[in-house]
Write a structure and sequence with these properties.
429 residues, alpha+beta, five-stranded mixed sheet, three-stranded mixed sheet, 17 helices, 38% helix, 18% strand
Length: 429
């Protein structure tokens, strides 16, 4: 626990909510300029972006960026990943995009997989390992579909083609890296061709790497505590180990204890976020809206760092969010790929958008509002929601928006339709 000499802050819930949306670059949403450099701004603030291949309304990391950057284009991030290689994919909280400059601090994942595969996978499939590496050395980047499939082997959750499995294992061990993705097709090359030799040669102590990874979780979310869902702390070793690392971060001042009135337990923010805490206090005290601007609406990604800690959402916002994409349809409370709706510094509902890129159509499957929130009477909401809807349609390349057919959404649909120009006119029911 923090010592008596450790600085700490005590916040009311309103200030804590305001602090989080300020430091998450959501006051208002899409306020960063429409340029590739804004992707770097978001990465610098959040530290890592979780990757998920599902592309229902946009890939997870693209949704995170689209909520913060005006006119965001997914090609901007792909260029940082596969051309300039300012970012790369590795395992942090799940598969994530992180700055390549921090590779030496994240290579613990490679090293641990190397040790594991060296005594299992790489021994059992030595001939295929040598064949694949030989082909990549000789012919360049390679995908599993470029090689005749071999018999399936048991691989993590299901039997998998040997070629695909061994390429994945070599990438997990840092022998290979992603040259690029073509859709969800992964194209591999030798790590030594993708990253500077000096970066690959740089080594740091295992404890230092895990301390860096732990700090990255606090940086991404903004107010994590010492518990919560297990997936928040994946890849940090045993709980006793990362609790020790957290104490070291406190003692060095890298993270600062924060108590929130009415919430049990201590939470922590990274030291660099103190100005946002002070800004939140000033705004709340002066009765100003978030960021001093008219509240905007954001469609947040299901794995947006702001919503990582579901318990914090319930306790701080009274917002119960579950990503039900892996929940059987009959057991879903809301829907398949449902996104939280943020308005100013309030979570006001959920939206389930589907992008049909071939038809250039954004279809809204459904909308759900929190108890006590009326989108029609909430001051400024219709305008803000319409702006968010148009921004999302442009992000997915849609020229047509299909509104839910449900009668309960008719009144809002009529108001949104009235605000859209001819190119965005909602089709009549």
């Amino acid at each position: 626990m923090p010592s008596a000499a450790t600085p700490r802050f005590t916040l009311d819930r309103a200030t804590a909510r305001r602090f989080l949306v300020l430091r998450h670059l959501l006051t208002p949403p899409r306020a960063l300029p429409a340029e590739p450099e804004s992707v770097l701004t978001v990465m610098a603030r959040l530290g890592s972006l979780q990757f998920d291949p599902l592309d229902i309304a946009g890939r997870n990391h693209d949704l995170v960026l689209a909520a913060r950057i005006a006119g965001y284009q997914r090609a901007w991030t792909d260029a940082y990943l596969y051309q300039t290689r300012a970012f790369y994919e590795t395992y942090n909280k799940g598969l994530s995009l992180v700055p390549t400059a921090e590779l030496p601090w994240y290579r613990v994942t490679w090293d641990l997989h190397q040790v594991s595969h060296d005594t299992t996978t790489f021994v059992e499939h030595a001939d295929l390992v040598e064949e694949l590496l030989g082909r990549i050395r000789r012919d360049g980047p390679l995908s599993s579909t470029d090689v005749e499939p071999r018999a399936a082997i048991e691989w993590y959750w299901r039997p998998t083609n040997q070629v695909r499995a061994i390429l994945e294992a070599l990438a997990e061990a840092g022998v290979l890296g992603l040259a690029r993705r073509e859709g969800n097709r992964r194209i591999y090359d030798l790590a030594e061709r993708l990253f500077p030799a000096a970066l690959l040669d740089e080594r740091h102590d295992l404890d230092d790497q895990r301390r860096h990874k732990l700090r990255s979780r606090y940086q991404a979310n903004g107010l994590l505590g010492s518990g919560g869902q297990a997936e928040i702390w994946l890849g940090l070793g045993k709980a006793t180990e990362w609790h020790l690392r957290r104490q070291e971060l406190i003692e060095t001042g890298a993270i600062v204890p924060v108590e929130i009135e009415g919430l049990k337990g201590v939470r922590f923010m990274v030291a660099e976020d103190r100005p946002f805490l002070e800004q939140a206090g000033r705004e709340i005290g002066a009765g100003l809206p978030p960021g001093g601007a008219a509240p905007g609406v954001a469609f947040l990604a299901p794995l947006d760092p702001l919503v990582w800690d579901r318990d914090l959402l319930r306790r701080l916002w009274d917002f119960d969010y579950i990503w039900e994409v892996y929940v059987p349809a009959a057991k879903r409370r809301w829907g398949y790929y449902v996104l939280p709706l943020l308005y100013g510094d309030r979570f006001v509902g959920r939206i389930e958008p589907r992008a049909d890129r071939r038809a250039k159509t954004l279809r809204l499957v459904d909308l759900w509002w929190e108890d006590g929130f009326d989108p029609i009477v909430a001051d400024g909401f219709v305008e803000a929601f319409t702006a968010a809807l148009v921004a999302h349609a442009r992000f997915v390349g849609a020229t047509r928006i299909v509104w839910p057919r449900t009668a309960r959404h008719r009144a809002l649909g009529e108001r949104v339709r009235a605000r859209l120009g001819p190119a965005w006119k909602l089709p009549a029911r």
